[in-house]
Design goal:
The complex is a heterodimer of chains A (about 200) and B (about 200). By secondary structure, chain A is an alpha+beta fold. Chain A has four helices and twelve strands. Chain A has one domain: Glutamine Phosphoribosylpyrophosphate, subunit 1, domain 1. Chain A has a five-stranded antiparallel beta sheet with strand order 10-1-2-11-12, covered by helices on one side. A five-stranded antiparallel beta sheet of chain A has the order 5-6-7-8-9, covered by helices on one side. In chain A, strand 1 and strand 2 form a beta hairpin. In chain A, helix 3 runs antiparallel to helix 4. Chain A is globular and about 45 Å long. With about 200 residues, chain B is an alpha+beta fold. Chain B is built from four helices and twelve strands. In chain B, the strands form three sheets. A five-stranded antiparallel beta sheet of chain B has the order 10-1-2-11-12, with helices on one face. In chain B, strands 5-6-7-8-9 form a five-stranded antiparallel beta sheet, covered by helices on one side. Chain B has a two-stranded antiparallel sheet with strand order 3-4. The relative contact order of chain B is 0.23. The chains are: A alpha+beta (about 200), B alpha+beta (about 200). The interface between A and B is medium-sized, with 16 and 13 residues.
């Protein structure tokens, strides 16, 4: 099952997601990126129904860009989170999106922030959060080792502890994870944690 | 599994001598898992009116946003704040509008009306008002809260004694309910000031 988790550190926020695209018992793809860069300083990690996940996150991403084109300035993380919640909430009683979202962003005057947004549009600003079966393990690890104002090294160390715990204790543990961070210099991919690499395409 | 018990909540409002208290728990959960321990369930509509929303978190957030919108429009048109009785009728009407597809919330409304007379009321998810002279309760811990309030309540309590009574009633009730707790949030409102206090209870 899909694992997404994230936490806020000292001047940055990190979001981690597994990278398996799964259909029943088949792994279609071992390197599916489930963390979208919404704009220069925002990350959206999503888990849930695959079609809804891609559709909805891309819809939000395009609306972020539209706002920026129209108004000349990007949305704050709080505004982006509330806009996303509004879209999920208005679709909820018509044609609900089955997507759980962790929205991380960096604002110049506020610093890093992380928002928990589940598929029924419950929004809450948090320091650490997780979705999926992996949440039972990653939340417990974070409850034990997290403290506010962690440095990047400490945070990545905690992320690795969570990944190790998921790999060892979850029966359907995903093999590969991607880690993305957002800080004052922007949102970017930090690292991959792979145990299974995709077979290389033959060159003849 | 009832949809009203998905997130978990406990709300109570109590009348004192020219004052009232409104209190809630602080847990945000998804069934058995706790997501956050600082989730706000009581909102201030204007300086003498408070609204608590128990039940499904997403509907509580949506309903709050709609009510703030309606109250702001009222303030622009009438150039004054809404009376608590009027606000209660507004909430009731908004809820009954969705009679055949309701918001899964139980609101608790507490305010100071004309001549600083305290007003409290609760309603069910389709807007059936229940006015009370002493206390009203809502949420997953409501049954325990009824018992605790009934035994601890005295009419015409001063603000300090009212705070103690409401706090003890809330903490003892949420300790018997696994879906609510993780502290308490108490507002004691008199004609001159609003005192907000956080309670530390059993964090489990």
């Amino acid at each position: 099952m899909e694992c997404v988790f994230g936490l806020v550190g000292n001047g940055f926020a990190v979001v981690v997601a597994d990278t398996s695209a799964v259909h029943s018992i088949l792994v279609h793809k071992p390197n599916e990126d489930k963390i979208l860069l919404l704009d220069s300083h925002k990350l959206m990690g999503a888990s849930g129904e695959p079609g809804d996940r891609v559709q909805f996150t891309e819809y939000i991403q395009k609306n972020m860009s539209l706002y920026q084109f129209r108004n000349g300035i990007p949305l704050t993380t709080a505004a982006a989170a509330n806009f996303t919640r509004g879209e999920l909430a208005s679709a909820l009683r018509k044609n609900p999106y089955h997507v759980n979202i962790l929205l991380a962003g960096y604002d110049k005057d506020i610093g890093p922030s992380l928002y928990y947004l589940d598929y029924i549009a419950t929004l809450h600003k948090v320091d650490k959060a997780a979705f999926g079966y992996g949440s039972y393990f990653s939340l417990a690890m974070m409850d034990r080792h997290y403290h506010s104002g962690m440095s990047l090294e400490e945070a990545i160390d905690l992320v690795d502890k969570c990944i190790t715990e998921i790999r060892s204790r979850l029966v359907v543990a995903p093999p590969n994870f991607v880690i993305k961070i957002v800080d004052k210099d922007g949102a970017r991919e930090y690292a991959w944690r792979e145990t299974i690499k995709d077979a290389p395409i033959p060159s003849d | 599994m009832s949809i009203f018990e998905y997130n978990g909540s406990a709300l109570v409002a109590m009348v004192g001598k020219n004052c009232f208290a409104i209190a809630s728990d602080r847990r945000l959960g998804v069934q058995l898992q706790t997501i956050a321990t600082d989730f706000q369930k009581i909102y201030q509509i204007h300086d003498r009116l408070f609204l608590g929303l128990s039940g499904l978190g997403t509907d509580a957030q949506t309903l709050y946003q709609r009510l703030v919108f309606r109250h702001k429009l009222y303030q622009l048109r009438e150039e004054r704040d809404m009376k608590p009785e009027t606000f209660a009728s507004l909430v009731s009407a908004l809820l009954y509008e969705k009679r055949f597809g309701p918001y899964f919330c139980q609101p608790v409304i507490a305010g100071l009306g004309d001549e600083d007379k305290p007003f409290i009321c609760t309603m069910d998810s389709i807007g059936a008002k229940e006015l009370a002279k002493d206390f009203v309760v809502a949420g997953t811990a409501s049954e325990s809260l009824y018992g605790a309030c009934e035994s601890m309540f005295k009419p015409d309590m001063e603000p300090e004694e009212l705070f103690e009574t409401v706090s003890q009633a809330l903490l003892s009730s949420v300790d018997r309910d696994c879906l609510s707790g993780w502290g308490g949030h108490v507002y004691v409102v008199t004609p001159t000031e609003v005192k907000e206090r956080i309670l530390k209870g059993r964090m489990d």
